[in-house]
Amino acid sequence: MPEFSVTQLPEVFVSDTAISKNVHAAVAKGQLRKIGSRLYTRNFTEDPEKIVRRNWYGLVANYFPDAVIADRTALENKPAEDGSIFLISAKTREVALPGLYLRPRTGPGPLESDRPLSGVRLASTARAYLENMRLSRARGGRAQRTLPREDVEKRLDALLRRQDAAAINRIRDDARRIAPELGYDAEFAELDGLIGSLLGTREAKLESEVGKARNTGEPYDPNRLQLFETLMFALRDSIAARREVPPRSADANATLAFFEAYFSNFIEGTEFTVDEAAEIVFEGVIPAERPADAHDVLGTFRVVSDIEHLKQLPASYAEFRQLLRHRHAMVMEARPDKGPGAFKAKPNQAGMTVFVAPDLVEGTLERGYHLSQALGDPLHRAIYIMALVSEVHPFADGNGRIARIMMNAELVAAGEERIIIPTAYRTDYLTALKAFTHSARMEPVIRMLSVAQGYTSRIDWSSIDIARANLAATNAFDEGELAKLKLA
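Now predict its structure.
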């Protein structure tokens, strides 16, 4: 027998007759602590519940070595909200541990498709879905053994969104193969109908909003919609600054629109000097070597300089959709390969950010647009609309530019100052958007855009030369992550 060493023991373990004497001695020496029946740990600092939950899958094998991790646990891959772990085992007595309840039941043993996990078996994905087709009830405040049908629908819809129809069809094929072996023919019929309904090939009663939407041909991204709801409420809880547009000449308005178009394109990588861009916009000089890039700047300017057009605010989603596509078509006119005015046909992403899938664009935009109706302040609506379009990314290209155009249209229509994002503020802009997308942090994007509006309001837009001098004095043209816009 190897020499007993506390340092070689797992963080938490169940004692047995082979080591019980050594374990008791280690407890007496203060090297181990007891946290449950036959349950010990080397960790003296953390709460026992945290330790046990972190190591739950290893502990299952100690108490139920023949177990199959099953039911909702096999889908969620974690304890239920009350700490329940659901198992299939020949042993049926429940085991209570700190923060954890091992809850076995009798049932079919492991199949070849069930995978090994720390000494026990984990039900295959197909088996887990079949088991969760069975109804169960919560008793005595305990979690249900199986997930509610609505949650199962949401999981399948999420799989469909992340991957494709082939993924859930594979689950259905695997379930069809193992159902007779498990005696789950009725459960397979339920699963088959549910998957068919989500794919639009069957008629079955769906319970989740996301499932119903997909079945009626209006699928949407529920994670993005939750993000938009959070932003809407965060905006309602904040107080927006009011920055009315001062009287401006036609030249000043043209200058402001020029620099809006210039910076919006520069952010996206369409880089010209100010003089080159001015020649494109005001003199119609299209560089022979970069005609498409020049038309991007010119198309953006044509949209943002048309104040009467920007004042057209949509009164319905249909009008919002029409304006969005029309403005995109104007900006991307010179790039027919990018589908000007047409929603994307292929998925798109930027770095680690994967945007809304093509088949979910319409449903997500529509539901997101309806949420914007709860916002009355122009700046709040502008911030929300920018985030909506940016996050959905409905087009193959030009999404950042069109998101900022739709944002500023809300402000122009209300007689409030626009928001311009100078090159030196690009890192702040993108960082705030990433915090919104990946961490659901609302405050950075709200603050960042409000600050940018305040900056825009302090620039003298009387002429190209005056504005350029103002912008240069505040480092607006500086590039790189270390660039710092002077905001005061």
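The radius of gyration is 30 Å.
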